[in-house]
Amino acid sequence: MYTDTIADYLTRIRNAVSAKHKVVEIPASKMKKRMTEILFDKGYILSYKFVDEKIQGKIKIALKYHPVSKTPAIKKIDRVSKPGLRKYVNSENLPRVLNGLGIAIISTSAGLMTDKEARAQKIGGEVICYVY
User: Fold this and answer.
1) Which residues of the chain have pLDDT under 50?
2) Would the pTM count as exceeding 0.85?
3) At what angle are helices 5-18 and 30-41 packed, to 10 degrees?
4) Which long-range contacts (CB under 8 A, 24 or more apart) does 16-22 make?
5) Paired residues of 113 in beta bridges
6) Sequence-ordered list of residues with C-beta below 8 angstroms from that of 40, at least 6 positions apart, any chain
């Protein structure tokens, strides 16, 4: 039993990237599925597949590497808001990751989205993680 499933999700991706794995399997949830879709849309992962099983299901993520230098697309992936200390921001104080080169995943009242999308819609929320 995990107390912080999002931290487990990010750690599995971080460990797979550092070990240069091609695919990583993660237990599924609605939030993790949406985070995976955001990572795919922004070009941080190669592809993904949702495998539905009887109870929970899994997410299979194909990690993305540079074809020649073999450097990963995800340099760093950090959890910001933790169960012990939640980090909420309003629309004026949304974080910029590496001056706009990275993304922050924000949980808003309109669902999970990147910091740029939340800034455009002028809504704040809980900062889940930084990816660059």
Assistant:
1) none
2) yes
3) 40
4) 16/63, 17/63, 17/72, 17/74, 17/77, 20/65, 20/70, 20/72, 21/63, 22/62, 22/63
5) 106
6) 47, 48
